[in-house]
Design a protein that fits this description.
Blueprint: H1 2-9, H2 11-36, H3 43-55, H4 58-88, H5 103-106, H6 108-127, H7 133-136, H8 147-155, H9 158-185, H10 194-220
Helix pairs in contact: 1-2, 2-4, 2-9, 2-10, 4-6, 6-9, 9-10
The structure holds protoporphyrin IX containing FE (HEM).
Protoporphyrin IX containing FE (HEM) is lined by residues 32, 36, 50, 53, 64, 115, 119, 122-123, 126-127, 147, 151, 164, 171, 212, 215-216.
Length: 227
């Protein structure tokens, strides 16, 4: 316990925890996308997957709780580190463009908080059924929750789809810088190959985001779920 408190008190400890929680969240995003892409295989495979997740019962709740703790830790540490950086640099630079910082790096807190808004909206949509209750109440021919039907119902609405695409673009900017910073914090970025590491981080980020964007766009354009 004392070790954890000491870790969070030092700046380097917080940066390390930030990188680690970010990596775990990135892992969740890869896992979540792999499950969601089953939509391209049809109603049966996606609903089977959702039913399997639900069948995990208490295990699923433990995973959800761990995920929530990681997410909250990442946000609290991010805001505290940004405040610390600001306090260490009270005078704003006269020419911000001269500072060696890319646009996404200066926008990490803002894009991060927008991602939080997106997650709350997304949970209200697909997990709690507050946004589109009719979609959430759908069941398939076997009487199971029709996750496939719910997603199709949701993304047939252009306003919903475009709001998802906009939020996913924000998430992309956040991950773009986040992943590159991860390598730097972990000391895995050497001057000689840092450009390579950055390029790889950007490539992985955009593949992930394009994978997510493909789902609402495929529904909206009728490529998936046409009846
Ligand atoms: C277009 C892309 C996405 C689709 C189609 C999608 C689909 C879904 C669905 C259907 C659920 C509910 C699962 C269920 O209750 O059976 C869900 C839950 C969730 N999604 Fe997404 N999602 C997408 C993108 C994202 C993104 C980008 C994030 C994170 C930034 C995210 C985070 C979550 C979380 C945290 C949950 C709750 C997990 C749980 O309760 O176990 N999703 N998503």
């Amino acid at each position: 316990m004392a070790g954890i408190a000491r870790l969070f008190h030092s700046s380097i400890g917080r940066k390390f925890s930030m990188a680690l929680t970010g990596l775990l969240l990135f892992g969740f995003l890869i896992g979540h996308l792999s499950g969601n892409l089953l939509i391209f295989k049809g109603q049966g495979p996606l609903n089977d997957y959702a039913a399997w997740l639900a069948s995990l019962g208490p295990v699923l709740w433990v995973v959800r709780l761990v995920l929530l703790t990681i997410f909250a830790t990442h946000i609290v540490l991010g805001v505290s580190l940004a405040k610390e950086n600001r306090a260490a640099r009270p005078e704003r630079y006269a020419y911000e463009s001269t500072v060696k910082a890319t646009l996404p790096s200066r926008w990490m807190v803002r894009t991060g908080l927008l991602v939080l808004v997106y997650v709350v909206y997304h949970l209200a949509h697909f997990t709690f059924g507050i946004v589109q209750p009719a979609g959430h109440a759908m069941v398939d021919a076997t009487g199971r929750p029709d996750v496939y039907g719910m997603v199709i119902h949701g993304f047939r609405n252009p306003v919903v789809t475009l709001s998802y695409v906009a939020f996913l673009a924000v998430l992309g900017f956040h991950l773009w810088h986040g992943l590159a910073s991860f390598f730097q914090t972990m000391g895995l970025s050497h001057e000689r190959y840092s450009r390579c590491v950055r390029a790889l981080a950007h490539l992985v980020t955009w593949i992930l985001i394009l994978g997510y964007v493909a789902i609402p766009m495929a529904v909206l354009t009728g490529l998936v779920g046409k009846s």
